[in-house]
Amino acid sequence: MLPLKIFLVKNYLEESHWMINIKHVFFDLDHTLWDFDRNSKLAFRKVFEINDLTMPFEDFIEIYVPINKQYWKWYREDRVTKSQLRYGRLLKTFKKLGKPVTDGLIHKLSDDYITYLPENNHLFDGVLELLSYLSEKYSLHIITNGFEEVQQSKIQLSGLSSFFNTITTSENVGVKKPHPKIFQHAIKLANASIENSIMIGDTYEADIVGAQNIKMQSICFNYHKAILPKEVITVNRISDIASHL
Fold first, then answer.
1. I need a surface site. Which of 78, 177, 178, 228 has the fewest CB within 10 A?
2. Contact 49, 43 (CB under 8 A)
3. Which of 103, 60, 105, 68 is nearest to 85 (CA)?
């Protein structure tokens, strides 16, 4: 039987989910730090304006968002390529809207979207304060499945770059989260270890399962209120990460 003092400390740690031995904190970027939905919508408004699209904007966004989410799932699973994702999500959206568009216009809209997406760089409330707090205690890093050329711009233009020591993108590594190789590459690049690292992200399948697969600690930023296994440590606000670290 454990001595009472050790038992109480152990029980407290388990109940509070207080992380121990952590030196390196790895973050996802989109939907975790960078408010992708808000910034994406603003980028599409610009794309609509410069291409004189007359269809109802809100109708487009309502249909596009779940289609885009599905394509990103397929992209993680290597069921579509980067170019197929960029083209297919728009084609399927316009088809569902009943709006015929040419291949040329779809390609232009896709290119314009990628161009203007990093122009808007809203972060979730509390991100900068959290990173300022954590950066005094831990080494911070990013692991992202997003496109290399866009992610680097987002990080620079949003004022995040000064907080992070390393940035690992799926295009650089050649595999996407949740593949173990991208986590192992990021840990090696950071000169960290699985035991002293933790992953924070919003997507259960990519961020949390990916970390679990290599026995890395994790916290899910579950702002979308997904139903997750009970053992997954979750927060509903990004600022709540501070209570665990």
1. 78
2. no
3. 68
> Hey, what amino acid is at 4?
L
Task: Let me know if 240 is exposed, middle or buried by CB neighbors in 10 A (0-12, 13-18, 19+).
Answer: middle
DSSP 8-state secondary structure symbol assigned to residue 117: G
CA-derived radius of gyration, the chain: 20
- For residues 29 and 143, what is the distance between their CA atoms, to the nearest angstrom? 7
CA–CA gap between residue 207 and residue 143 (Å, rounded): 9
- Show pLDDT as tens, one digit a residue, over the chain (245 residues): 434 343 333 443 444 455 679 999 999 999 999 999 999 999 999 999 999 998 899 999 999 999 999 999 999 999 999 999 999 999 999 999 999 899 999 999 999 999 999 999 999 999 999 999 999 999 999 999 988 889 999 999 999 999 999 999 999 999 999 999 999 999 999 999 999 999 999 999 999 999 999 999 999 999 989 999 999 999 999 999 999 99
Output the pTM of the full model: 0.88
